[in-house]
Amino acid sequence: MATAFQNISEALESFLFCNEEVKRKSAEEFLNQIPSADFTGGIFEYLSALNLRKPECNELAAILLKKQYIDKTENLQKIPQDILQQMTQTLESTITAERKVVYLKRVFEILVKIYTQSNSSDNLINLITKYSQTTESNIKKGLMYLIEISCEYSFDDTQLMQNSSKISSIFMHYLEDKDPLVQSLSLKSLVTFLNSIEDENNLRKFSDVFPLLISKCVNCLKADEESGLTSLTSITDLIETHPKFVKQITNDFLNLFTEILDNFISAAIRIKALTAILTLCATNNAQVRKSDVFKQKTIFSIMKLMAESSQLSLEEWTEELEDNKLSQNDAASAAEETLAKIGYELGNKFLFPLFAPLIKEAVLQNNQWNVQCAGINAIAYLAEGSKEICKQEDLQNLVLMIKQAVHNNQENPRIQYAALTAFSLLAAEYTPELQETMAKSLFRLFLKFRKYQHQTPIQSNLINNKLLQRSRRQKYTLKFQCRTYFVQNISYFLIKYYQYQLKIT
Record's SUPFAM superfamilies (predicted)? Predict the structure, then answer.
C-alpha cells in the first residue's frame, strides 16, 4: 500500500475531518487503491474500521467495503468462502442498538449481497428471524429495510411463499409499533413484499391485506410528515404495480387521498396525495370514471386546492415560476398540473362536463381572485379535446367568463397570466371558430396587458414558441411549461390566428 497513511482507519479519519485539502485528497487516493494494493488485507482493515469510535468513520468504512468489494461482481467472486464467512460474522456482530440506521442499512445491504451471491436464502431468513423480537427502535427500522431489500433483490416467488407466514407475522407486529416511523417503514416493507410477488395466484392469498393498508396509512399520516410521506409513497407504488388487486378498493383509496387534500396542511403530503390520485386514474381509469367518490368529492377537492394559490406571495410565485418549481413546492400549482394529467388519462370529454359547473361558479359567482383564477386554469387544462362536446355557444361563454374575470381583476397579473394560458390553449383546440369570431376582441384585451410587462413572468420571450416546435405527445408535457412563458401564449395565439388567415386567403 501507499505510505502516506499507516492504515485505512487513519485515512478515513483524515478524509472526514482534516481541513487540509491536500491531505484529504491524499486520503481519498489511498482509500481508492485499497483493493488493488492489498485485496485481502483491505477487507480485514475495513472490518476493523467498523468499530472505530467515531460513527462517521465506521459508516464510511461500511460504504467503501460495499462499494469496493461487494458491489463489484468480479471482486465479490474473488473473496474466498472462509473470508466471506468471517465478514458476515463480523458484520452481524456490529448490529447493535447504538448504531445509526444509516449504518445498519449499509451492513444489511452487504449481508444481502453476500447471501444472495452464495444462494444462502436460509441465512437471510435466519437473520430476519434473529432480529424480529428486538425492542430497539433503530434495529427495527434496519430490519424493515433488510426485509425490503431481501424481497426485492434476493427472494423469488417460491422463497417468498415458503417464508410468507414468518414474514407476515413480523409485519403485523411492527404495524402496531408505538413508533410511527417504524409503522410506516413496516408498511413500506410490506408493500415491497407484495410488489415482489409475480404470480397472481400467490398474490391473491394476501388480498385481505390490501384494505388494512389504508387504515395503517391513516395512522402514519396522523403521526408525522415523514411517516405519512413514506406510507403514501408505498401505497402509490402498490397501486402502480398491482392495479388489478387495487381495483375493488379504488373508492376507498380515492376517499383517503381526497380526505388528505381537504384536511392536511403539509404541501408535501398533499402533493403526494395528488400523485396517488393520478396513479389511480392511470392504472384503473375505468373504475375511477365510475366512482361516485371521484365525481362527487375528488373533483371538488382538486378545484378547492387550485384556489389556494393566494397563499403564495406574488414574489414567491414569480421566483418559482421562473425556475419551473411551482408544482414541486406549491400544492395549488401541483393540483393544476395534476388536473391536466388526469384529463389526459380519463379524457377531457369525460372530465370537462364534471368541472363545467364548478368553473362557472368559480369564475362568475365568486369575488375572490384566487377562486376565479382556479376556474380559468381549469378551462385551460381541460381545453384539449373539449371541442367534441362543446358547441359554439359554449365556447363563447367560456371566453366571456375569462374576459369578465380579467375585467374584474385588471391589476392582478396572475389572473392575466391564467387568462393568456387559457386563450392560447383554446385557440389551439377551437380552430377556426375562435379565430373567426373573437380574435379582434381578444387582441384588444392582450394590448391592455402590456403595461404589466415589468412583472418578471410577464416579459421577454415575445416570439419564443417552443410548444409549436414539438410533436403532439411532447406537446402534452410542454403544455405545463407553457405557463412559464407569459407572453409566449400571446405569440401562440397570434400564430394560430395567422395560420387561419393564410388558409382563407
Answer: ARM repeat
3 state SS for 416-448: HHHHHHHHHHHHHHCCCHHHHHHHHHHHHHHHH
> What is the chain's Cα-based Rg?
29
Residue from 406, 409, 400, 404 nearest 437 by CA: 400
Q: How far apart are CA 237 and CA 93, in angstroms?
A: 34
Q: 246, 320, 322, 317: which is closest to 285 by C-alpha?
A: 246
The pLDDT, as a whole number, for residue 128 is: 94
Instruction: Tell me the per-residue pLDDT of 118-169, one tens digit each, with 9 for 90 and over.
Output: 888 899 999 999 999 999 999 999 999 999 999 999 999 999 999 999 999 9
Query: 55-66 b/e with 16+ CB inside 10 Å = b?
Result: eebbbbbbbbbb
Average pLDDT over residues 207-217: 86
> Residue 480: pLDDT above 50?
no
| Whether the predicted pLDDT of 208 surpasses 90 | no
Rounded CA gap, 210 and 505, in Å? 63
Higher local confidence (pLDDT), 188 or 497: 188
Return the C-alpha cell found at 184. 410506516
CA neighbours within 13 Å on the CB side: how many for 246?
A: 31
Can you say whether the dihedral through the CA atoms of 273, 279, 282, 288 is positive or negative?
negative
CB distance 485 to 419 below 8 Å: no
Taking the C-alpha atoms of residue 377 and residue 420, their distance in angstroms, rounded to an integer, is 10
Q: Are 203 and 194 in contact (CB under 8 A)?
A: yes
User: pLDDT at position 327, please?
Assistant: 56
With beta carbons less than 8 A apart as the criterion, state whether 272 and 230 touch: no
- pLDDT tens column, 419-457: 888 888 888 888 777 777 776 777 777 666 655 544 444
Every domain of the chain and the residues it spans:
1-118, 120-246
State whether the Cα torsion 442-446-449-451 is positive or negative: negative
The DSSP call for residue 311 is G
Strand, helix or coil for residue 384: coil
d(CA 280, CA 278): 5
Contacts of 293 (CB under 8 A, 6+ apart): 251, 254, 255, 258
- 432 cis-preceded (ω within 30 degrees of 0): yes
Q: What is the dihedral of CA 440, 445, 449, 451, to 10 degrees?
A: 90
Give the 3-state secondary structure of residue 51: coil
User: How high is the pLDDT of residue 257?
Assistant: 95
Q: How far apart are CA 110 and CA 115, in angstroms?
A: 9
Phi, psi of 461, rounded to the nearest 5 degrees = 50, 40
Query: Residue 391 has what DSSP assignment?
Result: -
Residue from 385, 285, 427 nearest 342 by CA:
285
Which value, to the nearest 10 degrees, does the dihedral of the CA atoms of residues 202, 204, 210, 212 take?
-90
Please report, for residues 65, 93, 313, 441, 478, the alpha-carbon distance to residue 485 in angstroms, rounded to integers and kept in the order given.
49, 58, 19, 22, 11
- pTM beyond 0.85: the answer is no
